[in-house]
Amino acid sequence: MATRPDNVLLDRIDPHRNMARFYRLDIVPDLFGGVVLVRNWGRIGRRGQERCQWFAEPADAVREQAAWIRRKTRRGYEEVDVP
Predict the structure, then answer these.
(1) Residue ranges of the WGR domain (predicted)?
(2) pLDDT tens per residue across all 83 residues of the chain
(3) Structural domain count of the chain
(4) What pLDDT score was predicted for residue 71?
(5) Are 78 and 10 in contact (CB under 8 A)?
(6) Cβ contact 36:55 at 8 Å
(7) Strand ranges in the chain using DSSP code E only, listed in sequence order
(8) Residues ≥6 apart with Cβ < 8 Å to 28
(9) Which residue in 27, 57, 24 sits closest to 41, CA to CA?
(10) Nearest CA to 69 among 15, 11, 21, 19?
């Protein structure tokens, strides 16, 4: 499996539907040796919502991150370079 970066930013912009949304997926280490997949989503320019999912193994977090990327790209989101 190809490795993905720890931080992925997706957006979906459609001016005809007044749609400007983002979806961010970050994999960060926790204090107990595991990792956390942090999902943040909402309208561009707003704070949005956030949900965290804990994993014991980094590979499990990477698989879950890839699954979310597949779901969102099927819905029209496109990957954006993270600065």
Answers:
(1) 1-83
(2) 345 578 999 999 999 999 999 999 999 999 999 999 999 999 999 999 999 999 999 999 999 999 999 999 999 999 998 66
(3) 1
(4) 97
(5) yes
(6) yes
(7) 7-14, 19-29, 35-43, 49-55, 78-80
(8) 6, 35, 36, 38
(9) 24
(10) 11
Establish if 38 belongs to a structural domain.
Answer: yes
Q: State pTM to two decimals.
A: 0.88
Q: If phi over 0 gives left and psi between -120 and 50 gives alpha, with beta otherwise, what is residue 8? A: beta
The set of residues, in sequence order, having a beta carbon less than 8 Å from that of 14 and lying 6+ positions away, is: 76
The one-letter amino acid code at 3 reads T
* Residue 82 counted as domain residue: no
Place of tokens 């993270």: 82
Q: Which two tokens stand for residue 26?
A: 């970050």
In a domain, 16, yes or no: no
